[in-house]
Amino acid sequence: MNDAFQAGLLEKDFVAVVRFQGPKANGMPELHKLTPPLGILQDKGFRVAMVTDGRMSGASGKVPAAIHMSPECADGGPLLNIQTGDLIRLDANAGTLDVLVNQSELAGRIPAVCQTAPADYGMGRELFKMFRKTASSAEQGACSVGNLGDID
Asked: pLDDT-derived band of residue 57, with 50, 70 and 90 as boundaries?
């Protein structure tokens, strides 16, 4: 998303869908670094928001965001079938998120695949592999569950 922002490709109204950032897929990294570009676009008059299965701290500021979407994409969550160009309505006041696509069309789509799957090794990621594999959903606290001894 930051590359698209730098290239000037995001100068429009849109909802950014940031997938595969949940506890099982990517360990729920902090995504607040995505909000400054969205804030700049808002300052230019564009209506923008973000939807993700990942997390954000209180640093999201004025950018409307639906975070911790559950189930996450790694568990077959609803963000998998959203495509570029789909109309999405996020109403932060009402607490609703709607994908304005015919439900049968949405269900019939081939789900997205994580194009940048995180490596299991390097930068300390091997230390947390077992936690990603056994993590519960964000809705359930992203806690490690199950038998950690079964992790290869």
From this structure: confident
Hey, what are 130's tokens?
């077992």
Locus of tokens 């090794």: 121
- For 62, residues 6+ apart whose C-beta sits below 8 A from its C-beta are 39, 42
Phi, psi of 30 (to 5 degrees): -70, 125
- CATH value at residue 52: 3.50.30.80
pLDDT of residue 42: 95
Are 24 and 72 in contact, with CB atoms under 8 Å apart? Answer: yes
pLDDT digits (tens, 9 = 90+) for 59-108: 667 888 898 888 988 888 989 999 999 999 998 889 899 999 999 999 89
Whether residue 145 is contained in a domain is answered as no
Number of domains the chain contains: 1
| Residue 140, pLDDT score | 64
Torsion over CA: 70, 75, 78, 83 (sign): positive
**Which residues constitute the domain of residue 57?**
2-118
| Structural domain contains residue 76 | yes
Q: Is 80 helix (H, G, I), strand (E, B) or coil?
A: helix
